[in-house]
Design brief:
The chain is of the alpha/beta class and 179 residues long. It contains five helices and six strands. 42% of the residues lie in helices and 16% in strands.
Length: 179
């Protein structure tokens, strides 16, 4: 075993303790950074896209018309096809932005509004509720005249993204932009 004098041994011991303290501080910094990032991601800006079935010739929907569609007050497109809105459950976290920016009412009132809008439209409901963004996109793809409100990160090539009052998601001034 090599010979180590007392001074070297003490120095090695101090360096080892300093290294441990630095590692501990680095670990704490990484944990704090991870917490900050996860909190930022949860509160991150989120855009909701208005999507349409590929056969829908409409490219832009004024906000006033979108409000009517969302409330079941518009039954037909200009080309005569029936309008069907497909959305997530009003009580879901994904719909919070839509409740705030479009409906401006609590989820219970939106649920009542949906029931009223669908009353008497058994063959072609005004509003359909689905359980996931994937189901929403697939339903819009499969339903002529359908539009839906979906997270921009769920968009696929099987649908068209419509402008709302001349703006696309992620553009400045887009009405369905989260904060």
């Amino acid at each position: 075993m090599p010979f180590v004098d007392i001074e070297t041994a003490c120095c090695l011991h101090e360096n080892r303790n300093t290294a441990r303290e630095e590692i501990c501080l680095l670990q704490k910094a990484l944990v704090l950074a991870a917490l900050w990032l996860s909190c930022s991601a949860m509160g991150a800006c989120k855009d909701i896209a208005l999507i349409a079935n590929k056969s829908n010739p409409v490219k832009n929907v004024p906000l006033a018309d979108l409000l009517k569609i969302c409330k079941g007050q518009t039954s037909r497109w200009p080309d005569g096809k029936p309008v069907t809105l497909i959305i997530r459950n009003p009580g879901s976290q994904e719909m919070r932005l839509v409740l705030e920016k479009i409906y401006s009412m609590p989820k219970d009132e939106v649920a009542s509004l949906i029931l009223a809008a669908n009353h008497g439209r058994a063959n072609h409901p005004a509003i359909i509720i689905v359980d996931s963004d994937q189901s929403l996109v697939q339903s819009v793809e499969a339903t002529s005249g359908a539009v839906g409100l979906v997270d921009v990160y769920s968009i696929t090539g099987g649908i068209n993204v419509l402008r709302v009052s001349g703006k696309l998601p992620l553009e400045p001034g887009y009405v369905l932009h989260g904060n």
